[in-house]
Amino acid sequence: MSAEVKVPGQTGLILNEDLLWERGRQGRSAMSLPESGVPKASLPAEVAGDGPDWPDLSEQQVARHYTRLSTWNFGVDTGPYPLGSCTMKYNPKINDALADLPGFVGAHPLLPAEAVQGELSLIHDLEAYLAEIVGLKATTLQPGAGAHGELCGMLMIAAYHRHNKTRRTKVLVPETAHGTNPATASMCGFSEIQVPLGSKGYLEYATVEKLMTDEVAGLMVTNPNTLGLFETELHKINQMIHDRGGLVYGDGANLNAVMGWADLGRLGIDAVHINVHKTLSTPHGGGGPGAGPVAVSQALVPYLPGPRVVKEGDSYRWEVDLPLSIGRLHGFHGQFRTLVRAFAYILTMGADLKRASELAVLNANYVKEKLKDLYDLPFNQSCMHEFVFTNAKQEPHKVSTLDIAKRLIDLGFHPPTIYFPLVVHSAIMIEPTETESKEDLDAFIAAMRQVAEEAKNDPDILHRAPLNTFRQRLDDVAAARRPILTGDMG
Amino acid sequence: MRYLPHTAEDVKEMLAAVGVKSIDGLFECVPPEARRERPLDLPAPLTEWELRDKIEGLAQGGDWQVFTGAGSYAHRIPALVPYLASRSEFLTSYTPYQPEMSQGTLQAIFEFQTLISRLTGLAVTNASMYDGATAFTEAALMAQRCSKKRALAVSELAHPHWRQVLETYLAAIGDVELLVLPADAQGRTDYGPLAKLDKPAALLVQSPNFLGVIEDLPAAAEAIHKLGGLLVVGFAEAFALGLTKSPGSQGADIVVGDGQSLGLGQGFGGPSVGLMSSKQEFVRQIPGRLVGKTEDAQGRRGFVLTLSTREQHIRRSKAVSNICSNAGHCALTAAMFMASTGGTGFRKLAQVNLDLSEYLKKGLLGLGFKPLGDAPTFNEFALTAPKGFDQKREDLLGKKILAGLPLGAWYPKYEGVYLFGATETKTRADIDAFLAEVSE
Hints:
The complex is a heterodimer of chains A (about 500) and B (about 450). In chain A, about 35% of the residues lie in helices and about 10% in strands. Chain A is built from 16 helices and 12 strands. In chain A, strand 4, helix 9 (about 235-245) and strand 5 (about 245-250) form a beta-alpha-beta unit. In chain A, helix 3 (about 95-100) packs across helix 11 (about 335-350) and helix 12 runs parallel beside helix 14 (about 440-455). Chain A starts with 19 loop residues before the first helix and ends in a 9-residue tail after the last helix. Chain B is an alpha/beta fold and about 450 residues long. Chain B folds into 3 domains: about 10-55, no CATH class; about 65-75 and about 340-440, Aspartate Aminotransferase, domain 1 (Alpha-Beta Complex); about 80-335, Type I PLP-dependent aspartate aminotransferase-like (Major domain) (Aspartate Aminotransferase, domain 2, 3-Layer(aba) Sandwich). Chain B contains 12 helices and 15 strands. Chain B has a 7-stranded mixed beta sheet, with helices on both faces. In chain B, a hairpin with a 5-residue loop joins strand 9 and strand 10 (about 300-305). In chain B, helix 5 (about 105-120) runs parallel beside helix 10 (about 330-365), helix 6 (about 130-145) crosses helix 7 (about 160-175) and helix 10 (about 330-365) crosses helix 12. In chain B, about 60% of the residues are buried. The mean pLDDT of chain B is about 95. Chains A and B meet through helix 2, helix 3, helix 4, helix 5 and helix 6 of A and helix 1, helix 2, helix 3, helix 4 and helix 5 of B.
């Protein structure tokens, strides 16, 4: 480790904070409460009730409560967050400000189209930009997150086969897939055929070819896959699947690796979801809201959810006459204000999106090369935006992948994704993203090297980590054995 | 480009470390057949200031006077709530898989689950769904798993969009019988036809329903429980629960709702937050994340994601749902809003909502509008319009006033009927002015 590189982890003053109801006293309020100024109305006794018995707090109590809670958290703004397959890139602040414009916040979703031409043009243009970025024909913005986009795509594929009167009940899913893929297939009534991985870490044509029968509706494939490798035989595989009447669903979780490089239309993808909270920089919010727009090939355009925005001359309107559409997937028009952020990001980046992908790939390869002497790299080749280590070199010292992850917390980094993909034993999946500077990558590399050193010389420090956080390791076995999911408000 | 930190020197050093000559060398793994043949055709990059000008010009829907609800409600949001919610420790973090560095999110969501359970009257609440429509649909699928039955009945007075989402999900599975229960003359659901279903998994109703009418939930519970199915109750306007009996206390087995009213703004329809509660006995069938209480290595109170063997990342094709990311930040924001109103404030605001909407209703009745019946309503209500109102409504659009929504597009039998509503964002003067416009 070079002397000038310092890891950021440090201890500080952390304050305790009670649960909300441990602070409340009835009669306080943190909000102005208007008088109605009209006669009091009442509901009949048979429906009237008392309302919830939530605690009452003052405005300062609420402010302090959540401010203290926030200090127990770690976000992309706090430090590097190399969580594989999650693309924790910087979330630009102007995008949040624009999503919070009163003109959007106060817009009723059922205003007549003439009243919301701006909003409709945003939907229309964003759909076009997303189709351009992936190289497909049309896009829907309705799905609420990536998994919802998968559902949208597979519902369209199911509708396509129903319409063409072919009975296909199975779907091919590579064993590297995210859990959402098989779960989605099953929600659409398909059974899963797991496709084994080739020895080089990607799908092999011959393997898929054997599994592709006339009972198979298609393939669900993540490209680059969750090992961070581009599926180099996918164009041949997709051609074969199309020749045999199937369609191909692309999981776009890893789109951040290939913007401006890959053309999913040429590659033979029929539907792909785009995780805007990954590739398009919208904040993940501690678990959403995301948005999962889906772009499709010509074959699936008629099946897109509706209603759809159409442009006629200079004006926009809702089209509801969509006879083959799978229907509606969201209460209104999708996660609109999240999509505003994605739109703002695209307008800020323009064709530099390609540069973002290139630097994401550069950052991943740089970190991999700087650490592969100390960590086991099961697939030693050029990676895309992420790569997978294991703890094989630390295992002899009885140091698990979990221990490595927890020690990184003390050193000031969010750990990588761990124990995924399942095909790699005790995986450590690292995705730096393009917004991390070389200095921050060097600090992460220094931390990883320090952890590898400690694993040899002082493994106990890893077993006990993290020690500097507000809470140390939590007992999740006890949590699941006797679930306590709500508090006792008395 | 301000989001990309690499200097030319950085790139050179890093390429050297990787051992390739150029960036293109990193993409040799992309076969020619998969490559783009032309550059990205996107507008030229904008500066922050150009971007702001452009997008401000597109934010057009926020300054309308809207006198309807239909699943989206204007409510005051204290400055405190978006201020706290925008703290980047909350906003820029991921799903709390590493609990030691996510205790803020985890405690806040545990509190959210608790507050929503007190609202719905059921013991278990998940960490959120995408929105009310998808929560409603997932509740139907959950009820099928809990009851081990298939057939479903849904009230035609549940939000038409929610029913459409349900139908979209069911279409792929096929062979699920879906009985639509009609409205009675009062604008309440007629549970009579339910007996036609053999072994129903669930009855799905919304209360207040799409017409704003508070449903007879004890009757719904009796009707479906007699047949061995579950009662799923949805709500779109959370403030109704400030003045009415909780659905859980009236026999609901699963309660779902849209939490948009809880400090989230209308946002042209999203993102909102899907709320979902159930009885304790169904906890292993509930979809989505759950936060549970536990202890750390030193015996101190802490929180973790729990019961994850229900979920897709563990159970894969056997998972109870494919949901992964939910609406976590909206749930957090809703919790902040609930903490701000408190129980006392929430009840008071609900009363103000009722008072103003009843004032509007009386005013319109005075102008010749006719009610569907006399069942109690909250915040919104359906009225048959007098002759000539259609044209008047068109004229008011020119003044940025939305004078109710025509229900005929969703319900042919309600041709000429309009859905009106008002919340605490309207004053008596606003309503008087609106009534004057309508009567002109």
